[in-house]
Amino acid sequence: MRRPWVAGNWKMNGLRETNALLAKGLSLLAAEREIDICVAPPAPYWLQVVDAMEGTGVRVLAQNVSEHAGGAHTGEHSVSMLQDCGLAGALVGHSERRQLHGETDVVVAEKFAAVRKAGLQPVLCVGETLDERRAGETLSVVSRQLLAVLESQGPDAFDGAVLAYEPVWAIGTGLTATPEQAQAVHASLRAVMAAFDADRAGQLRIVYGGSVKAGNAAGLFAMPDIDGALVGGASLDAQEFLGICHAVRQRL
Ligand SMILES: O=C[C@H](O)COP(=O)(O)O
C-alpha cells in the first residue's frame, strides 16, 4: 500500500495576505492524517507558510533548489537553507525549470542528490512536450529523465522520494491527460524502476500533474499506478485543493 501524496505548487503566485488566506483555508487538512500533503510556496514566503501550517501536518516544499552547497550563486538557495527554514523537501526538474531555465538531466540529477543527501524529500518531475508526444517519444523522454537519476544514484536514491509525471502539454493549459494516458506512462515508469529493483518499484509513489482539479481527480486516482497529484493552478483555491485531497482518499 503506497501512501497517497498530494502537493500544491503555488509557482510564482501569492503575496503575504493571500498566502495567509490560503493557508487558513488549508488548515482543514489537519484531519487528513493518512495522506501526505505538501505545499510549495515561493521562497520569500517559506517561513510564513511553515508557521501557518504548524500543527496541520501539511509539509512545505521548495519549488527548486541549488545543486551547490553554498557560495557565489546569486539568486539560488541551498538545501541547508531549506532545512534551516523547516522545509521537508524540494521539487527538482519541474518542466518550467527545464524549459525556461535550461536545466539539463544532469543538473536535475545533481539537485536530486543534494536534496536526498540532506535527508529531505526530492520530488523528481518528468514529462514530455506536445511535439514529443506527437512524435511517439513520450516513453523514451520520461524514461531518459528518470534514468538520469537512477543510473547515477541507484534505485535506493528513491527511498522516500516521489516521482511526478507532468506532461508539459497538460500544465496550465486545461488539457488533462486522460486517466488511461497517465496510467500508461506511470506503469512504464514503474517498469523502468523495476528493472533496477522490483521491490522499490512497487513502493515508489508516482503522482500525476497537469490541470488536476477537484472535478477530474477521482478518475485519475482510480488508476492503479497514480498515487497522488502535483497540483498547480487548482492549489491556489483552498476548496479545489481540499477537494483533490479528499478525492485521493479513495486509494486508502
Ligand atoms: O507543478 C504543477 C504542475 O505544473 C501542474 O500545473 P497545473 O495544475 O496548473 O496544470
Automatic annotation (TrEMBL):
Gene Ontology terms describing biological process: gluconeogenesis; glyceraldehyde-3-phosphate biosynthetic process; glycerol catabolic process; glycolytic process
Residue positions of the active site: 94 (electrophile), 166 (proton acceptor)
Subcellular location: Cytoplasm
Catalytic activity annotation: D-glyceraldehyde 3-phosphate = dihydroxyacetone phosphate
Binding site for substrate: 9-11, 172, 211, 232-233
MF terms (GO), sorted A to Z: triose-phosphate isomerase activity
Subunit structure: Homodimer.
Pathway: Carbohydrate degradation; glycolysis; D-glyceraldehyde 3-phosphate from glycerone phosphate: step 1/1; Carbohydrate metabolism; erythritol degradation; Carbohydrate biosynthesis; gluconeogenesis
Lineage: Bacteria, Pseudomonadati, Pseudomonadota, Gammaproteobacteria, Moraxellales
Function of the protein: Involved in the gluconeogenesis. Catalyzes stereospecifically the conversion of dihydroxyacetone phosphate (DHAP) to D-glyceraldehyde-3-phosphate (G3P).
EC top class named in words: isomerase
Entries under Gene3D superfamilies matching the protein: Aldolase class I
Entries under Pfam families matching the protein: TIM
Keyword annotations from UniProtKB, A to Z: Cytoplasm, Gluconeogenesis, Glycolysis, Isomerase
Family: Belongs to the triosephosphate isomerase family.
Protein name: Triosephosphate isomerase
CDD domains linked to this entry: TIM
Gene Ontology CC, one term: cytosol
NCBIfam families the record matches: tim (TIGR00419)
